[in-house]
Amino acid sequence: MGDHFEKGQHALLNEGEENEMEIFGYRTQGCRQTLCIAGSIFSFGILPLVFYWRPAWHVWANCVPCSLQEADVVLLRTTDEYQIYSRKKVMWIYLSSLNSAVDLTPDHPLITDEECIINRAIRKPDLKVRYIKVQKIRYVWNNLEGQFQKIGSLEDWLSSAKIHQKFGSGLTREEQEIRRLICGPNTIDVEITPIWKLLIKEVLNPFQSVKLHHLVESHNSITVSVCGRKAGVQELESRFLVPGDLLILTGNKVQMPCDAVLIDGSCVVNEGMLTGESIPVTKTPLPKMDSSVPWKTQSEADYKRHVLFCGTEVIQAKAACSGTVRAVVLQTGFNTAKGDLVRSILYPKPMNFKLYRDAIRFLLCLVGTATIGMIYTLCVYVLSGEPPEDIVKKALDVITIAVPPALPAALTTGIIYAQKRLKKRGIFCISPQRINVCGQVNLVCFDKTGTLTRDGLDLWGVVPCDRNGFQDVHSFASGKALPWGPLCAAMASCHSLILLDGTVQGDPLDLKMFEATTWEMAISRDDFHTKGVSAHVMVVKPCKTASQVPVEGIAVLHQFPFSSALQRMTVIVQEMGGDRLAFMKGAPERVASFCQPETVPTSFVSELQIYTTQGFRVIALAYKKLDTDHHTTAWMREKVESNLIFLGLLILENRLKEETKPVLEELISARIRTVMITGDNLQTAITVARKSGMISESQKVILIEANETTGSSSASISWKLVEEKKHITYGSQDNYINIGEEVSDSGRERSYHFALSGKSFHVISQHFSSLLPKVLINGTIFARMSPGQKSSLVEEFQKLDYFVGMCGDGANDCGALKMAHVGISLSEQEASVASPFTSKTPNIECVPHLIKEGRAALVTSFCMFKYMALYSMIQYVGVLLLYWETNSLSNYQFLFQDLAITTIIGVTMNLNGAYPKLVPFRPAGQLISPPLLLSVIFNILLSLVMHIVGFILVQRQPWFSMEMHSACTVQNENASMLTIYPTVPEKVGSNGAFTSFENTTIWFLGTINCIIVAVIFSKGKPFRQPTYTNYIFVLVLITQLGVCLFILFADIPDLYRRLDLLCTPVLWRVYIVVMLTFNFIVSLVVEEAIIENRALWMRIKRCFGYQSKSQYQIWQRDLANDPSWPPINQTSYSDMPGCGNGVSYSNPVFESNEEQL
Predict the structure, then answer these.
(1) What is the DSSP string of 760-798?
(2) What is the CATH number of the domain that holds 130?
(3) pTM, whole model, 2 decimals?
């Protein structure tokens, strides 16, 4: 209904972004609204409930379509596969509410400048602004462009020159007030929902859990220094900040209350809150360029190196020539990086996991069953001539019996227990519903450095080079110092280390490199003066024991920080009393591309391969001399990074973590695919994959190289077999190279693996998209991947119906961690918000633990679902049988079954822990699967038969009489001697239930059957610990069964009277036990021999020719039958048939088509 719109009635919000939505304009119509109010009253509140669940229906019922410009209500629809609707009211902001000394008029200079979105949003002449608020973000109506636009950020189109010119002196008080009113406060508020509202929301959203975390407590109460254009510097509470304000950063250890772009001075920042990695990051000022290009794209370097993000800590602020460190506020409130993370927690990606969708479907089936029961009840009681009020009560009772209200809670308890067990292991979770998704993971991506390998790098040696090529390796193990020269100077100065409280801190690689030089670090004094250089710069000096070093020290004048996208960093330095130099450090291939070709040894590629194939991490160094005439800030990065002289290679050992190999072997033996995604060298990654067991010795590695279109030749892709070679080793330093014994290869189906670089992945995605799924099916190593490419790769795996886990150290993996179904960040921070799961233990042992707990939680959810369904059906069948005699269970009988039996079982049944071994198959991921449905239907039918047999047999007993309401034995030893006590039928209990032999029989059968079903459905191996290890549950079952048998066989009149039961002969009680025992044996045999017999179901699948519909399994079958795959030692071009674009497949994200058992 919401799809037919004229121009102006429909638009896109956040076009091209992750949270893109369609927006439709509507106007409320009075007569429609009146009819809806009347409908709400006459439906006793059911209509508002429907509107709550279906906001689109609410809008369509109350409003008529109109243009967005005239709309007072908008309907939003996400553009992803979920198509989720939400309704928002259009609100107004009035500028007349400003307490400004300036009298604002429509032609005031502050308002007439329509360069910024804020002024375009002000409607003239009445000076008011239309806006909507969606997921904590404000969107104002742009009168000039006729669309809603996000507010609370500086415009992206601004050039660096414009930022310096327009905001370099700060804002006036009037500008601040207008922006404050329109943009809203700079706060990240997470409201504590009142209990009553929380209860209502939980009832209205039965399959959600509360995910409220105190992540932003200190954010809104920071005092900052702000420079105004006329007012000068003043102290201000951070909640009053607006985009465009000029911040003055003073002192150290400052928490950033907003996102800001640095325009003067430099800062060292701890971005651990965002990345999970507490390594200091250097931020440089945004250079003032004449170009009108937007500031974010003016350079190939990542713009984030100029941005101070909200929530990060400024460890050190260093002023430049102007004497102050200044930053322009970029974004405030929920628009900031921290705000975005908090929003991702408050509004997580929809969990379209089949379990929850199927649960809703099953609930609807139960509602249908209840409707049939209601019709049956109405017919029976109307024909019996019962009063109308009793008929309505009985009919409504059937709904509460057939549809178990505790089902959502029961499905959640398994997750809660799993979360507690994970917390004990140091694994923290901010999205509990994803624990169930962990049980379906069948592919895990790992970052290499810091995840599979140790964080700490050992400096193995350095390979200097000169005009004649590479020289002998200088090993640092000998303790001999590196001779003075440009290479030594590069190692001493080309880094991002800082001096904090007398301690050198920074990236572990930089730290190892600097320590190897034995130099010292200090801050220059006030008497340090060099042309174009301020005092208080970082200076590195040779230690006192060092000899033959002709310079006093080296001052680090300017840094171009390391960027994973650029794969390099550069510094400009000044030798004291010597030359001004530039040093570069980075990935060898990247650094070599900036060097003069004649300075790069001809053996560069082969020399590099020697080390990378042995698993070493290799860094290249280069340098050049600079003119001293220029100010350091006047140097453009492009100019500095050209015509360099190649210096040599730095060789670092990156050893595997002890836990890596056993964990990968465990995952592979469980048939869970393992993939490496790293920013490191391809050869190093291949060696680490072999060493870790990700690729066994018997399996081949095929290297894929893809190149972009160049000149007349089209894009190409080549396939080369990587052959193992015996490499030259140096001394006894090759311990890392030796490959130990591998796990047996019986569980692996693939005999080859693809390895490729980020560049090749990009080219394949662009020019060979039809080959991409084929590459991904066997792609195991992805090297030199940028953060964006990591996210893309995870998404491509999801498109193939894999349930993807991603494990990384949080540094460059944030996007991939968020994109994956299960993101696990290895961080010491307990509440890292970079991913759904965070492990305090910095190794990959958490991955199998998480999968085991996920599988256990998933199986527990199924157990509880089956149990709750059976419990409700047992009660439903019993009550409908009693309704036939216009009878029912009493309040105390219902209470005993609901509280004493079902509730306690529901709480304790889920306590089984995860089974310690990962088996090579996953639990079912959906409720609507043949084994589960068969189990539920069979047990319902079995219970139905038992109840009907008991109901009919009791009426045919010789002692049964409609007018006799007690048949107890006088002497227990003589069951044949009966004393019959005639009594008048008595109406007992507030619900009007009659005591009868049918009631007593049905109640005992139903109550004990609930205990039997709990035993049958409580699963142990292979996903959960055996049931007997759940001592509390076993004790509960024994106690409950004992109490029920005691009530059954005890002749205590007072107890029977309170429970509205009648005494029956002992022989009949034995019959009840026999019926229940028969039910238990049949149910157990069927459950174990058929329902849980995986081999039987696999044979049935083969007999019927069933094949999985998962995309990756379809591709695997196709490739297995393709004799030409994989191509080896071949090259293909994009203009060749069958190599270009042409594949199309959807991204189901949390939904898999794979039918599992």
Answers:
(1) HHHHHHHH-TTTHHHHHHHEEEEES--HHHHHHHHHHHH
(2) 2.70.150.10
(3) 0.73
